[in-house]
Amino acid sequence: MKTKTDETLTREYLAAVERETSTLPAAVRQELLADLAEHIAVALAERPGSVHEILREMGDPRAIAATAFQELGAAPATPSRSPGRRRSPAWLPLVLLVAGDVLPYLGGIALTWIAFAATVAAVVIVCRARYWTVAQKWTGLTLTVIVPAVVHVAWYFSPVPHHDSAVEPLVRWTLVALVFLLTLAGAGSLWRNRRPA
């Protein structure tokens, strides 16, 4: 399993602090991020390879943000969600994406419509979720939705004789397997790259 580098962990940590302090004045936020980055760099120079420990000692990005708001005398931004409304878990859109890929092959127009609804719901959840960066969302959705859709359209408009009993099943099931593998790769990519929201 590929482990994250010190640079990647530091960048993700600082990005989390930046998100949590997004309503601070830009100059204050940039100064805070610069101070944190400098502190991490100095600590890593003294203790190379212990970035996990250093980040743990620094504290949760939300706690750092709360302290910054307190020192500034400002109130932190509150989420614009209604009380009691919960975020969708990170696994939900991934299950919906895989279901949206598998259900049409089980037969029936009803399952095709359910698959379409599952895919649309998954895309909306992924786009709104804070588990992934924009680039990670694009990568995951490209593999799970866009490329499979292009493959399906290419299949329906291809010059391959769809009713040729010798060619059609082999080509069709090869494409089905390819689309399924792409969907699994995209869902796996999103799952591996998720972060606490």
Topology (elements, then pairings):
Elements: H1 6-20, H2 26-46, H3 51-58, H4 61-72, H5 91-102, H6 109-128, H7 134-156, H8 168-193
Helix pairs in contact: 1-2, 1-4, 5-6, 5-8, 6-7, 7-8
Mean pLDDT: 79
How far apart, in Å, are the first and last alpha carbons? 23 Å
The dominant shape is elongated
Beta-strand content bin: under 5%
The number of helical elements comes to 8
Précis, in short:
With 197 residues, the protein is mostly helical. The chain has helices spanning 6-20, 26-46, 51-58, 61-72, 91-102, 109-128, 134-156, 168-193. Helix 1 crosses helix 4 (61-72), helix 5 (91-102) packs antiparallel against helix 6 (109-128) and helix 6 (109-128) runs antiparallel to helix 7.
Structure commentary:
By secondary structure, this protein is mainly α. It has eight helices and no strands. It has helices at residues 6-20, 26-46, 51-58, 61-72, 91-102, 109-128, 134-156, 168-193. The longest helix has 26 residues, at 168-193. The protein is elongated.
